[in-house]
Structure formats: structure tokens, C-alpha cells
């Protein structure tokens, strides 16, 4: 590691340290005492679990009005959203601890949102998820296959949506205007009457955007056309308290977008366009047992895509079914158990009537019983031991496990470790698309993690250091327009996170992440293997400094994010063979400010890439946005 990659962390610590000598008006909230649900699938303090979890609070979400889910995730330790600074309609690639998006399931209130049509291993298209319906986000790091299924190898992102209000009828919404003729607005209703609560919201976003592709020669091609983007989303949930113990919550999310896109790196195009939509619906139910709870969840999802390009017209229909029945029970004051069974099915259909038929038709399903035993703060010691047995329709039966001890010292320092395994079957796309390979083998992963977390100085300083290692056998990669199994993928890294609250109203956050990875493939000579770094578009070093201060009715915050050197794979026009291309490091500076009239209304302004940095690549050959701004109003009635 180069010492020049640590400046943001150093600045954060130097900024925070002198301030602790000042008088404190109020204590901060310790991260160790934060109650979360994603770590164990039921409510538990972070101090009672060895899992590594980050919470993006409601207040942080509210300070991202006019932005997107990808903007918020891109400011978190260990996460890189490739395309976050590109044209709004450009696809957003999530990398979590160096792993691609197919290894990180996205959940909505604990139920997976998947995409059987996707080329990225079945991962959901992040553009389909509206941030304005989000209450909070919990990010769980490391392999979580025991509780969340085979794909949860890098981690879990659980998006928790807004629920009903505290009066019969209430309204909320926002409206913002911004650069590139961008307009975004949300209107919603929420309320509670007797045993029923509800939340309904509609969001519209449109922008002229920028050119997706960058001109190769700004003299010969001084300007490409703008590639616009338009999105609508509707979300509703209704909570029904049928009895004192029994609750049902039916829900629905509909989201669609239209986007124009270019022909590739440095290649403009005036006719390429895509239309995509998603319906995600189902029901969550809960029965209170007194010393535990019983959950029954069902989800159905349909994603359709219509694409027109130089390759022809393609229409895809992907469907996913999810059922999960589980319960947890407090055996005594320090011992808890969780038992469940899960069912998943995906289907992919090509409904193209004209042009080249790209995808075949296929389906696969699996049933997975699972169980975990938890020791809860037994004289400071906590422990989770669990296993899942996956019965897959195409790839046989596989057992995965989790062992996760932790120890809390003096209620202030938590040391933790974890070893967990994962199993991931090839997706329908990787098996049956034009580039598919029906001979693919499933991937098998083993992950290791260890670290320490502490809250000091009256809970005004939180610090966490985590080291991790992830080994995947038979890793599936998309190489030169073909899905293939590599021998193994070995990734490792370190995360350092600091949160300081030195005085009332002031919060300082900083993180530094190091990630390294190498793939090992069989060489032509028996017994000789070849290993090389293959984390394309994933930097070894990332860091961020975020400072926010609230005084009276004003709030001002700033975020500086540094992305280190990395390599991309460049496909020249007409070439089917990619070549590595180095990308230089870059730093982006954003700011946010708001003024609250009262508890019901505020005006805000978001300024992004303040230095108007355009001299960097997220993806080689694709444009990035320079300075942009959004301003608007938000209200709660």
C-alpha cells in the first residue's frame, strides 16, 4: 500500500481530535447499541452479533433528495458503483469488496429483488429502485449464505421502505430541478387508522442527460448528442394488524424507465433505446409468539425489457418467485434459535418477434432448509453457528455454513471473527443466452473475516477495522463474449471506518478501503497455473471524508470521495477481444445544504462534482458528468 492513499483518513482524525476537548452538549448514539434486523433476520443490537453491518439512517436518506440509490451506496465503505458519475441512464455496476453485483443480493424489506433477464448474474438493475420510498438501508458485509441463500457471497443490501404515519391521513413529497434539464418529483400519502396503516408514493424523474459515449477526438467529433432518461415508479404497502399477535403487510412496487444509449466506447448512436419495467409484489406476515416471532413472506417479480439497437430488437421476460417461512425463539436469556425453509424459482423467456433471438427459454428452482443457533452476550461472548442445505433443480445438493464468534469487552470494544461458505448456481442468462454455456459448473466460496469495533469518549467516537478474505472456486466470468468457469478467484482487503461526534450537531465520518484480487487459471503446461489481478474497474484504494453540521434550522454537509487507480477492459469498434486499459485515480467533491421552515418543510440544494472534474474515466470511452446541481423543496404534512 502506498502511504499517499491515506490522506482522507488522516484528515478526519486530525479534524476530530482537537474538538473532543470542547464541552459536549449531548452524547452521540453508539453504533454498538444500534438495533438492526438484517444481521440475524430479527432485531438485535450490533454489540450482540459478530456481523459487520452499516446503517444508512433516515436522516441520511433525507439529505439525498434529488439523487438516487446508487449515489447513496457509492459513499459507503467497500462499495463502488461504477457509472454513478456517468450519464443517468447508463447502467450502474455494483462492486462490493471487489465482487461483482451478482454476489450481492438486494432486498426490499427482507425479500430479494432479482432480475432473471439481467446480464449481471441476476442482480437487480439499481435504476429501477426509487430512493424516495426508502426509510433506511442496512448493509451487511461478508458471506451470508446461511440466512440469505446461495448468492449472498459478498454481502447483503437490505432496503427498508417507509411505512404508515402516526395520524389517519398525512402527505409527503418533494420537487427538485437541476442540471441537464433534470426534473424529479415525489408525492405520497401515509397514515394509520385503528388497525390499518399505509404508505403510497409516486416518483417521476426525467433528464436530458449527457452523451453516454465520449468523443474520441474532440476536434473531429466536438459533440455527441445527449442521451435522455425518463423514469416512473409507484410503491405502496398496507399494514393490517389482524389480531394482537398477527400482522399482514401486502406490498407492490412498479418501476419503469426509458433510456437512450450509445453504441459503445467512443461510439455515438442516435437510434439505440431501451425500455424496462419491473413489478415486485407480495405479502409479509408476522405472528408474535411472545418469546419469539414467526414470519411467512412471499414475493413475485416480473422484469420485462425491450431493446432496439444495431444488434436488432430483443424482448425479454424474466420472472422470480420467492417464499420464506422461518421463526426465531428465545430459549433463555442468552440462547436463541432460528429455523426456516426457503423456496426460489426463476424463469427467463425470450419474446422477441423480430431480429436476432438472443436468449433461449429456461427455468430453475431450489428449496433450502436452514437453521442457526445464537449465544447472546453470555458474559460478553456472542456466537452464531448455522447451516443451510440447498436442493437445486439442476446442480444437486449443497451445504453451506456460518461460524461467527464475537466478544464484547467492557461494553465498549467488540472483537469478532467469521468463517462462512457459499454456493452459487449459474444464472439462466449465463446458461442459455447467445453467449451462454450449458456446461458451466456452480461456484463455491469460502470467506474469512476478523476485526474490532469500539465506541469511545462517551459514545462520541466509533471506530471499526475489518480484514477479509474471500476464495471462490470455479468462478464464472464473462470473457470475450462468452461465459466460462475459471479455476479460482481470491480476494482480500481491509476496511477502516471512523465516525466522530465531537460537539452537538457536528458529525464526521471517514473510511479507507483496500481491496486486492487475483484469478488463477490452468496453464497449457500441466501442473503450472497462471495468476493475475483481474479486478477490472475496481480500485485497490478508495476513501471518503464526510462532514455534516446542523445548527438551528440549517444543515450543511460535504463529502469528498477518492477512487484509486484501476484497469478497464477496452473493446475497440468491431473487436470481440478486450485489452486492458489503465484508468487514473480521481477525487470528487460534493456538498449539500438545507433550511427547515419547521418540522414539515425544507428547501435544499445539492452540488455534485464541485471542481467540475471531467478528466477521469469510470468506464473507458464513456462520458462523466462535470459540475451538476439540484435544488428544490420537500414537505411532510
From TrEMBL:
Residues 1-21 form the signal peptide. GO terms for cellular component: cell outer membrane. GO terms for molecular function: siderophore uptake transmembrane transporter activity. The keyword Transport applies. Belongs to the TonB-dependent receptor family. The lineage of its organism: Bacteria, Pseudomonadati, Bacteroidota, Chitinophagia, Chitinophagales. PROSITE patterns: TONB_DEPENDENT_REC_1, TONB_DEPENDENT_REC_3. It holds the Pfam family Plug. Keywords: Cell outer membrane, Ion transport, Membrane, Receptor, Signal, TonB box, Transmembrane, Transmembrane beta strand, Transport. It comes from Chitinophaga lutea. It is a multi-pass membrane protein. This is TonB-dependent receptor. Residues 243-610 form the TonB-dependent receptor-like beta-barrel domain. GO terms for biological process: siderophore transmembrane transport. InterPro entries: Beta-barrel_TonB, Beta-barrel_TonB_sf, Plug_dom, Plug_dom_sf, TonB-dep_rcpt-like, TonB_box_CS. It is found in: Cell outer membrane. Its main location: membrane. The keyword Signal applies.
Amino acid at each position: 500500500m502506498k502511504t499517499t492513499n491515506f490522506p482522507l483518513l488522516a484528515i478526519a482524525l486530525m479534524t476530530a481530535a482537537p474538538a473532543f476537548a470542547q464541552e459536549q452538549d449531548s452524547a452521540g448514539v453508539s453504533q454498538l447499541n444500534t438495533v438492526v434486523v438484517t444481521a440475524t433476520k430479527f432485531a438485535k443490537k450490533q454489540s450482540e452479533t459478530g456481523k459487520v453491518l452499516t446503517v444508512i439512517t433516515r436522516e441520511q436518506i433525507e439529505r439525498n433528495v434529488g439523487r438516487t440509490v446508487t449515489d447513496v451506496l457509492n459513499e459507503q465503505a467497500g462499495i463502488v458503483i461504477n457509472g454513478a458519475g456517468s450519464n443517468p441512464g447508463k447502467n450502474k455496476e455494483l462492486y462490493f469488496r471487489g465482487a461483482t453485483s451478482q454476489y450481492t443480493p438486494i432486498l426490499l424489506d427482507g425479500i430479494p429483488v432479482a432480475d432473471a433477464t439481467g446480464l449481471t448474474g441476476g442482480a437487480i438493475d439499481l435504476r429501477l429502485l426509487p430512493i424516495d420510498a426508502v426509510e433506511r438501508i442496512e448493509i451487511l458485509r461478508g458471506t451470508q449464505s446461511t440466512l440469505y441463500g446461495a448468492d449472498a457471497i459478498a454481502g447483503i443490501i437490505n432496503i427498508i421502505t417507509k411505512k404508515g404515519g402516526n395520524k389517519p391521513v398525512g402527505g409527503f413529497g418533494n420537487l427538485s430541478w437541476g442540471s441537464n434539464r433534470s426534473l424529479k418529483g415525489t408525492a405520497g400519502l401515509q397514515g394509520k387508522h385503528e388497525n390499518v396503516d399505509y404508505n403510497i408514493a409516486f416518483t417521476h424523474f426525467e433528464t436530458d442527460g449527457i452523451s453516454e459515449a465520449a468523443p474520441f477526438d474532440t476536434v473531429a467529433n466536438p459533440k455527441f448528442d445527449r442521451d435522455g432518461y425518463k423514469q416512473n415508479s409507484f410503491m405502496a404497502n398496507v399494514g393490517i394488524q389482524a389480531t394482537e399477535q398477527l400482522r399482514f403487510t401486502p406490498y407492490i412496487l412498479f418501476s419503469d424507465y426509458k433510456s437512450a444509449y450509445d453504441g459503445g466506447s467512443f461510439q455515438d448512436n442516435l437510434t439505440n433505446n431501451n425500455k424496462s419495467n419491473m413489478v415486485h409484489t407480495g405479502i409479509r406476515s408476522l405472528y408474535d409468539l411472545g418469546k419469539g416471532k414467526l414470519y411467512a413472506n412471499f414475493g413475485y417479480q416480473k422484469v420485462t425489457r425491450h431493446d432496439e439497437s444495431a444488434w436488432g430488437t430483443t424482448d425479454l421476460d424474466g420472472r422470480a418467485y420467492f417464499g420464506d417461512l422461518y421463526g426465531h425463539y428465545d430459549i433463555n436469556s442468552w440462547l436463541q434459535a432460528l429455523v426456516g425453509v426457503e423456496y426460489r424459482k426463476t424463469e427467463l423467456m425470450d419474446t422477441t418477434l423480430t431480429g436476432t433471438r438472443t436468449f433461449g427459454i429456461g427455468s430453475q428452482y431450489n428449496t433450502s432448509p436452514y437453521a442457526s443457533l445464537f449465544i447472546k452476550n453470555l458474559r460478553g461472548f456472542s456466537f452464531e453457528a448455522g447451516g443451510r442445505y440447498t436442493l437445486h433443480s439442476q446442480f444437486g445438493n449443497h451445504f453451506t455454513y456460518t461460524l461467527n464468534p464475537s466478544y464484547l469487552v467492557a461494553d465498549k470494544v467488540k472483537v469478532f471473527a467469521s468463517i462462512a461458505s457459499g454456493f452459487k448456481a449459474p444464472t439462466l442468462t449465463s446458461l442459455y443466452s447467445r453467449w451462454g454455456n450449458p456446461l458451466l459448473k456452480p461456484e463455491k466460496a469460502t470467506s474469512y473475516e476478523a476485526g474490532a469495533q469500539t465506541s469511545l469518549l462517551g459514545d462520541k467516537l466509533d471506530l471499526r477495522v475489518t480484514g477479509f478474505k474471500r476464495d471462490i472456486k470455479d468462478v464464472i466470468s464473462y470473457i470475450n463474449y462468452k461465459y466460462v468457469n475459471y479455476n479460482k478467484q481470491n480476494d482480500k482487503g481491509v476496511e477502516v471506518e471512523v465516525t466522530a461526534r465531537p460537539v452537538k450537531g457536528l458529525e464526521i465520518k471517514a473510511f479507507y478501503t483496500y481491496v486486492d484480487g487475483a484469478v488463477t487459471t490452468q496453464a497449457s503446461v500441466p501442473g503450472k497455473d497462471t495468476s493475475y489481478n483481474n479486478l477490472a474497474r475496481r480500485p485497490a484504494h478508495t476513501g471518503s471524508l464526510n462532514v455534516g453540521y446542523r445548527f438551528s434550522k440549517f444543515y450543511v454537509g460535504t463529502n469528498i470521495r477518492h477512487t484509486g487507480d484501476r484497469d478497464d477492459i477496452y473493446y475497440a469498434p468491431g473487436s470481440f477481444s478486450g485489452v486492458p486499459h489503465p484508468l487514473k485515480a480521481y477525487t470528487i467533491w460534493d456538498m449539500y445544504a438545507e433550511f427547515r421552515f419547521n418540522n414539515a418543510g425544507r428547501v435544499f440544494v445539492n452540488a455534485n462534482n464541485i471542481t467540475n472534474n471531467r478528466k477521469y474515466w469510470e468506464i473507458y470511452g464513456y462520458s462523466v458528468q462535470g459540475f451538476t446541481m439540484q435544488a428544490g423543496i420537500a414537505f411532510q404534512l
